[in-house]
Amino acid sequence: MDFNFLSGLSQKYNNEGIFSLSGFCKSKKHISLLFMRIILLLLSAVLLHAGCKRQATHRDDIFQNGRVQGVLDNPVIDEASGLVASHANSGMLWTHNDSGDKARIFLIDSVGKYQATVWLRGATNRDWEDITLGAGPQPDNTYIYIGEIGDNLAQYPHKSIYRIKEPKFTGDTTISIDEVDSIRFVLPDGNRDTEALMIDPQTKDLYIFSKREAAINLYRLPYPQSTTEMMIAEKVLDAMPFTLIVAADWSADGKEILIKSYKQVYYWQLKKDQPLNEVLSESPEILPYDEEPQGESIAFALDGSGYYTLSEYAKGVMPTLMFYPRSKQE
Length: 330
Known about the structure:
The protein has two domains: 3-54; 67-325, Tachylectin-2, Chain A (5 Propeller), CATH 2.115.10.20. Helices cover 13% and strands 37% of the residues. It has three helices and 22 strands. It has helices spanning 3-15, 28-54, 276-279; strands at residues 67-71, 80-85, 92-97, 104-109, 114-120, 128-134, 143-148, 159-165, 174-177, 181-186, 194-199, 206-210, 216-221, 231-232, 234-240, 247-250, 256-260, 265-269, 285-287, 295-300, 306-311, 320-325. A hairpin with a 6-residue loop joins strand 11 and strand 12.
């Protein structure tokens, strides 16, 4: 707190005869007004000081500032709402469009160049909001999980996550998937919008973050997820101190977690065997992020060398793939 600032005010008021008990303040009424003004000044200064201390500072000693990798060269990908690093296709990423698109995902390389479209037969895109990738029923395969989890008006009775085996890109730009699992679920506390999805690389549990509350919730779908019965998600954390969370990712080695809002990227490191609810109850680090016009995607690089973000087309700005490299440790 800057007490010199208060002293200056006091002296100023003294010079003007406002704070002088021998001048202006000769009655009990004036003395009461004097103390009320002093208290208000002190309270204002304390609140200002506390607010300044709470301002977020970016940790560029963990990850560096963002670099433009490239502008997406396929205009069909205009509402990118999810992003994840491919396991089967080295150096590539999977993404998808937001609500209203066809049931398809896209493979792009690390500079945003289009590679292929994968069609999910029998699926629909009501409101796809995020994508994640990890283990599944067969140990020799990796699986892509696409979150049909958006609900802006909190009107849909249930949500779905589509699961497919990750295809290997061999040069064919069109791939059709017939085996599409649907994991249907409801939230235990009613309909609400959710837009961030991630998978625990060790347990294969799926986690979903709500979006629009002033303090959001975290839900879990434990492995093995049913593809025949409606599941009820388990609420893991209530009233997390974040809002408008639109994307999440859990690193392939299981040691780091990212979630992002439209304005900030939050980061946690996990200690060995530390429960997730304990990890996410701790204060996160705030990582570098160049605010995008409609940024709803984040993904760790598969090798942990940094993280990517990708925006929708908005405000005349083309979707641009950004990369934030990990800072070199001395």
